[in-house]
Amino acid sequence: MRGPAEVIVASTPSRAARAAALAADLPPLVGEGATAMPMTLSDAAARCERPGVEAVVVMLDPADVPTGLSELMDAAEESRTAVLLMAGSSGDPRPDPRNGAVEPLDAAAEHVAATLRGLIGRRRDLERVGHELRIASRFAGGLRGEIARMQEELQLAAQVQREFLPREFPSVGDIAVDVFWRPASYVSGDIYDVARLDERHLGVFIADAVGHGVPAALLTMVICRGLPSKDVGGGTYRIVPPSEALARINADMIAHQGRTTRFATAAYAVVDVPTGHVRLACAGHPAPVLMRADGTLEMVEAEGGLLGVFEGEEYREVTFELRPGDRLLLHSDGFEQAFPGDPTGSRHARLPSKRYLDEFAAVRGAASASELVRQIGRRIDVQFGSVHQADDVTLLVVERAPAGGVP
User: Fold this and answer.
1) Do residues 198 and 60 both lie within one domain?
2) 272 DSSP β-pair partners
3) Residue 53: which CATH number?
4) Can you tell me the distance from the alpha carbon of 133 to that of 80, in angstroms, rounded to the nearest whole number?
5) Which of 8, 243, 286, 372 could form a disulfide with 315 if both were Cys (CB 3.0 to 4.6 A apart)?
6) How many Cβ atoms sit within 10 Å of the Cβ of residue 241?
7) Based on the structure, what is the number of domains in the chain?
8) Biggest alpha carbon distance in the chain?
9) What predicted TM-score, i.e. pTM, was given to this entire model?
């Protein structure tokens, strides 16, 4: 017999007050003895791994980088915990209810509770079905062969994904590019691309699907293929600005959502090679790092919500100059767990941290982009837990050669 429902209300910092108020209102509306606790996305991921949690309410603000969201979604999926996403406002177009549990941020507590009751009831039905299936599987034969076939398919999927990624990077003027890319399992939810747009422009793209495995890998491959870098017609072309490119991807993802809500983060930069002028936009992605020639590090903050969540989202574009000897580092959020905040290996070691910035600073003396990538790889290899990597890790390094030098 299951006990009263326990609900987690997880939010970004900007929505912490709204999350606390909703958590206070929900228990009597969800059911007798129900409880609801507000907490951060990272804390919610750890709590979700413990028994008793029936549902998670995730409150997202489009202006925030949702640190810990990927870890929370993975934990919820593994524990089969129901998830209700709250984003946007009641004035926005409502999604088709078949597309998943999504409510506006300003939804009334009664409405949220009704949705949660439905999700919790469905989860319990699914658990009963799952129990029956587990009993039936004991009498099924050929499981070993089926597992071998699945492993073979995963290995093939990994090979296809690697062949899809650029093997060599285009050479344009004094710009050099290199990458560190390491999946957490067979395939990666991270993807990247570097393309020569014309004689003087270079496009640099990185995307990270929320989650891991084949679904995340397929989503990022579709996103990368759908990146609108140039509009061609009438005997001429136009390079699509990064902010517009991300907005078009976002609109396309929302238009083609099926029964499940899938979303991703991304960063896209267009580099004017002769001048070093860079235009960059981000969609819920960790801020890229600008490593100046003198060794100082600057965070490049660009506002924009997750891809596939906020309809009509606008992505703010930032511009800056990549001067001789400067490097631009675009990375996935796997770096927040690649370097544990507690290197001793305690249970908190896998919580996201900003220690990776110290690691970037430690390799700023690398002679080239390729050498910087090699040094970062060695530093990841010696970290606690690197054998069982918690998340996909990707780092794109865009380097402008020093004055009079060769990249």
Assistant:
1) no
2) 201, 277
3) 3.40.50.2300
4) 15
5) 243
6) 15
7) 2
8) 74
9) 0.72
